[in-house]
């Protein structure tokens, strides 16, 4: 499996941490996000969406970070991270779809305003942040309620659902995500996800500096 990614981005961090969680054997081909390499003709021949990450495995070319984790888990027989039981798998799939459709877009508002804009010499727009606040708290409340009853999103150990849902929060302090109103969510992120070896190995710090390339 060859992963095309830039470790600093949300969805690439997700793919890298998820693959490490599963102990997957893969190679990394760096595609520089900030220089726009993901928009090059060479990369768009792999992923015409011009988005990161993508994966090649033999003749298979795969887009979408969640699909990459699902595929890797199935290929490697890692059912502890992506269950084969229909009901348990549906539970994981529910969170993967919800993350992509709802959670990522909400967290991304804070990431752009409080991380990307300052890095590029711009200033956050208070009106944009205020406009997202209600939606963010609604979504964070859903997670907080779930995590009030579970140590992990889908059972008693981490799965690819935890990695997927944590990824949009990976710079939560710098992005100034308002987590204090959601203590179970904050505890899960700081005391569980961030303590995982796979998460530590893919650390991204302020300024979008990755501690490791893979």
Describe this structure in words.
This protein is of the alpha+beta class. It has 2 domains: 2-78 and 206-210, Glutaredoxin; 86-195, Glutathione S-transferase Yfyf (Class Pi), Chain A, domain 2, CATH 1.20.1050. The chain is 51% helix and 9% strand. The protein has helices spanning 10-21, 41-44, 65-76, 86-119, 126-147, 160-166, 172-175, 183-192, 197-200; strands at residues 2-5, 27-30, 54-57, 60-63, 204-205, 209-210. It starts with a strand and ends with a strand.
Characteristic key phrases:
9 helices; Glutaredoxin; 4-stranded mixed beta sheet; two-stranded antiparallel sheet; 9% strand; alpha+beta
Write the layout of secondary structure elements.
Layout: E1 2-5, H1 10-21, E2 27-30, H2 41-44, E3 54-57, E4 60-63, H3 65-76, H4 86-119, H5 126-147, H6 160-166, H7 172-175, H8 183-192, H9 197-200, E5 204-205, E6 209-210
Parallel strand pairs: 1-2
Antiparallel strand pairs: 1-3, 3-4, 5-6
In total, how many domains does the architecture comprise?
A: 2
Outline the low-pLDDT stretches. Answer: none
Average pLDDT, rounded to a whole number, is 95
The DSSP helix count reads: 9
Helix fraction?
40-55%
CATH class of the largest domain: Mainly Alpha
The portion of residues forming beta strands comes to 5-15%
What do we call the CATH topology of the largest domain? Answer: Glutathione S-transferase Yfyf (Class Pi), Chain A, domain 2
Secondary-structure element string: EHEHEEHHHHHHHEE
The strand order across the widest sheet is: 2-1-3-4
